[in-house]
């Protein structure tokens, strides 16, 4: 019974990935305004990083406020590889993702000795340290002013894909691949072990599961996905500086998962879209942006523990059942 339910759920998730791919093709072919394309591209890039945060926080239950550091590692590594080493974009993106994942594996060893609020504070300090390094190593990163400029456009096998419409398809393909990876993880034995880890580390260890190994694996995957998002961001943004990778970005990624859903990877897409579009309504309140994010985060965690996206879906299902019931 349980296996058949999981199989049906996995099939529905695969159908969702297929529908997402179709939506990417249709959207990239029909959307005319460049502003709308740009907002969707940023949403897709942040959704990839948010899916990494979902693996770490939503599945494994580990809080990290330092994901912006891995996002920055991916962005700078891909930009420097393209501008100084002349490495092809695809290889630069793959290498940047691997570098961010390796960096995540390295720092996870000491950080994951901590739990709950102590882990959050440690990752926050780690993120601040990396931001300071990004800002101060001007010979390498360009610092805050002027930063890295004129990153070459994205291309594959000599085909120029640097336009907004082409990058929409590139980011869409990367997003589909990422969510397929995360869905397979969720439905695998590793995913079940991570969910057990979220419930109780002591009970999980008592079942013979290597707690440290799985925590490090979740942290490494989250760092790698943040690095992938950062690499795509560098190619699309072309010019950026260290101010992008502040603690605010880590808070936004956490907000995407909590607002979307902490129980389903699909919530990361909704959360990324919501948080990306939200600043357009807060242009007159820029100095209060983090405060507003904090209020939203608090309200959702108290009144919608499964996330705003999941709550909306559940309400829709209840309304549908009431309408269908005579």
UniProtKB/TrEMBL annotation:
* Predominant place of localization: membrane
Where can this protein be found?
Answer: Cell membrane
**UniProt-listed InterPro entries:** ABC_transp_permease, LivM-like
Membrane-spanning segments: 12-31, 37-57, 87-106, 118-137, 166-186, 216-236, 266-282, 288-313
Q: Which GO terms describe its molecular function?
A: branched-chain amino acid transmembrane transporter activity
User: CDD domains from the entry?
Assistant: TM_PBP1_LivM_like
Q: Give an example GO cellular component term for this record.
A: plasma membrane
The membrane topology term of the UniProt record is: Multi-pass membrane protein
What keywords are annotated for this sequence in UniProt?
A: Cell membrane, Membrane, Transmembrane, Transmembrane helix
- One Pfam family name is BPD_transp_2
The record's annotation in PANTHER family points to: BRANCHED AMINO ACID TRANSPORT SYSTEM PERMEASE, HIGH-AFFINITY BRANCHED-CHAIN AMINO ACID TRANSPORT SYSTEM PERMEASE
List the protein's name.
Branched-chain amino acid ABC transporter permease
């Amino acid at each position: 019974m349980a296996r058949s339910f999981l199989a049906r759920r996995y099939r529905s998730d695969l159908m969702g990935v297929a529908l997402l791919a179709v939506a990417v093709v249709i959207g990239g072919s029909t959307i005319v305004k460049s502003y709308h394309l740009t907002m969707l591209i940023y949403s897709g890039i942040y959704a990839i990083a948010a899916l990494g945060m979902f693996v770490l926080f939503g599945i494994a239950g580990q809080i990290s406020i330092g994901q912006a550091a891995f996002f920055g590692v991916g962005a700078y590594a891909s930009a420097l590889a393209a501008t100084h080493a002349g490495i092809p974009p695809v290889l630069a993106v793959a290498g940047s993702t691997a570098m961010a994942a390796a960096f995540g594996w390295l720092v996870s060893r000491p950080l994951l000795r901590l739990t709950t609020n102590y882990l959050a504070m440690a990752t926050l300090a780690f993120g601040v340290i990396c931001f300071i390094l990004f800002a101060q190593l001007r010979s390498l990163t360009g610092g805050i002013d002027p930063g890295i400029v004129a990153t070459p456009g994205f291309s594959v096998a000599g085909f120029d894909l640097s336009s907004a419409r082409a990058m929409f398809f590139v980011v869409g393909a990367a997003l589909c691949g990422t969510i397929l990876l995360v869905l397979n993880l969720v439905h695998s034995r590793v995913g079940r072990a991570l969910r057990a880890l979220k419930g109780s580390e002591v009970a999980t260890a008592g079942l013979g599961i290597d707690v440290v190994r799985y925590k490090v694996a979740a942290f490494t995957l989250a760092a790698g996905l943040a690095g992938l998002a950062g690499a795509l961001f560098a190619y699309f943004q072309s010019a950026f500086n260290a101010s992008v990778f502040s603690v605010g970005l880590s808070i936004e990624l956490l907000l995407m998962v909590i607002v979307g859903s902490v129980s389903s990877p699909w919530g990361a897409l909704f959360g990324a879209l919501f948080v990306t579009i939200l600043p357009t309504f807060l242009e007159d309140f820029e100095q209060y942006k983090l405060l507003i994010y904090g209020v939203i985060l608090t309200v959702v965690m108290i009144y919608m523990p499964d996330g705003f996206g999941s709550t909306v879906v559940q309400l829709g299902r209840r309304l549908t059942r009431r309408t269908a019931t005579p």
